[in-house]
Structures are given as structure tokens and as C-alpha cells.
Design a protein that fits this description.
The structure is a homodimer of 153-residue chains.
Chain A: E1 3-6, H1 12-21, H2 37-47, E2 52-59, E3 62-72, H3 76-79, E4 82-90, H4 99-113, E5 118-124, H5 128-136, E6 140-149
Parallel strand pairs in A: 4-5
Antiparallel strand pairs in A: 1-2, 2-3, 3-4
């Protein structure tokens, strides 16, 4: 039984561990201990912003997945809001059991509940399996995602 | 001489005109008059959020370009912020004169000033010229952008 809830500061070590384990996106992350105080500062910024939600998927009291939801106001499409999903991670030993689809489905429901006309996300071109996964769930791979690094990465 | 500034409510008709003129992204937008009150509500949401900036490029008192900047907190990369650029539009009669590169350069500087480690944007796969433009400016086309529409579009 998996439940979803907003993360608390006490979840940070488990979340950062999931981020750091990811070979593509987590190579500058370090789960500690000790945990870099920058993570607590970032969490405070997320937690204090009603348009940002850091989510954990929990099973048996253990964090087995995480993602961030951002609700973005904009003028396009007659002032419609967008829901953005970022930093989706699932524990290695929990994959292949449908948790990803369940998490994304839950995230999309949160976007609907906030009145978003669209949900969006980007996925690294090296994540071919993830791309097929999103397409199976009905997402359209209609855009290219560009990144410009402003510091060494 | 082009200057950039945060938009005011008085700029909304000019901005929405730029959005509506775009064949790919603006087909549900209507510049009026009258201007749909939903645009004013969206502007209020942007204007009231310190992490959202609606920008206009102005020349001779006329709005000739627009874009939205979103500053996003996150845990990834040791709690680094991202700058996101969305809804970049330039008036048809102002294209091909370097305004786009100037606008994006200005936007990137705003991201640096906010301490972002990365700037990001997505661009529709039908905008091939824009993709080449961003690559010329040094952006990496490293991701795929997925969209899921939650209402008829």
C-alpha cells in the first residue's frame, strides 16, 4: 500500500539518497551524513511556496519515491495554469511494479485539482525507457528540452 | 534601442496579441478587445509571485517582445535553483535582427543574478528554426519535453 504526502524536513535524507543514486541527474548530490545544509534551505523555499510541492511516496513507513510538483501561472491559453513534474525518482528495489505509473497518475490528479490545463515534464534523452513509459501513459513527446548550465556541472 | 522590464497590467493587450499571433502555441488565445478577464487574473498571479516575472521588450514605447521567467527551487544539485523561460514571443516585424538572442541573453543574466545553476526551456518540435537558434546560443538539447493536456486543446 503506497501513500503520497508532502515531504517534511525529516524526509530529506531519504529523498536526497534517491536523488544521489540516480546516475544521470544526481552526480553532484550527496546524501551524507551529514546532509549539506543547502538541502534544508532548498526545502524551506519549496515548503514556503504554495505553488511548489515536494512529494514522497511512502510504503510501510519508508520513502520509496519522490517527485516535485510546480504549479505555474501564465498568460498562454487564456491565463491557464500548468503543472510541472520534476525530479521523479523511485527506489531501485521498487521498480517494475507499477509505482511509476501510479505516482504520475497521482501527480496528474493534483494538477487537475489545481485547475491546470496541462501537465508538463522533461526527461533526459538518455532515459529511453522513461520516454516510452510517458508515451504509454498518454503523454505527447511534442517538445525538445533545452538546458544551459550557468556553472560547472 | 531595446529595453526590458517587468510587464504591467497595461501591457496585457500587447502581450496577448503577441501570444495569439503565434500559430503553434496561441490558437486558444484572443487579444480582443475586450480582453478576456482571465488574462488579468493570470497576470495578478504572476505579478504577486516573487518567483515569476512576465517580461516585455520595449522599443520606442512599443512592446515588441515578451517572455516569462520562472525561478524554481529544488533539491537537485545540492538545492540549486533553476531559471525557466517560457512563452518567448517576438513581433513578426522585429524578427531577424538579433532581438531573440538579446532577449535570451538578458533572461540568462536574470537567472544568474538569482543564483540559478541552470536555465531551461522547452520548444515545440515544430519550431525547428528556434531549436537551431538555441543550440547556436550554446543551449544543450539534452531532454525531451512531454505534455499531457488535461482539457480539450
Amino acid at each position: 500500500m503506497v501513500t503520497y504526502r508532502d515531504a517534511t524536513a525529516a524526509d530529506l535524507p531519504a529523498i536526497v539518497l534517491l536523488l544521489a543514486e540516480d546516475q544521470i541527474g544526481g552526480r553532484r548530490d550527496d546524501p551524507g551524513p551529514p546532509l549539506d545544509s543547502a538541502y534544508a534551505a532548498a526545502f524551506a523555499a519549496i515548503d514556503g511556496d504554495p505553488n511548489q510541492r515536494l512529494i514522497v511516496a511512502v510504503s510501510g513507513g519508508t520513502v520509496i519515491g519522490t517527485m516535485q510538483l510546480s504549479f505555474l501561472p501564465g498568460l498562454l491559453n487564456r491565463g491557464a495554469w500548468r503543472g510541472q513534474i520534476e525530479a521523479v525518482r523511485i527506489a531501485a528495489d521498487q521498480r517494475g511494479q507499477g509505482l511509476g505509473a501510479d505516482m504520475i497518475g497521482w501527480a496528474v490528479e493534483q494538477c487537475r485539482a489545481r485547475g491546470c490545463f496541462m501537465a508538463q515534464l522533461t526527461s533526459n534523452n538518455d532515459r529511453g525507457a522513461a520516454h516510452r513509459f510517458y508515451e504509454r501513459l498518454g503523454w505527447q513527446k511534442s517538445h525538445a528540452g533545452f538546458k544551459l548550465y550557468l556553472e560547472a556541472y
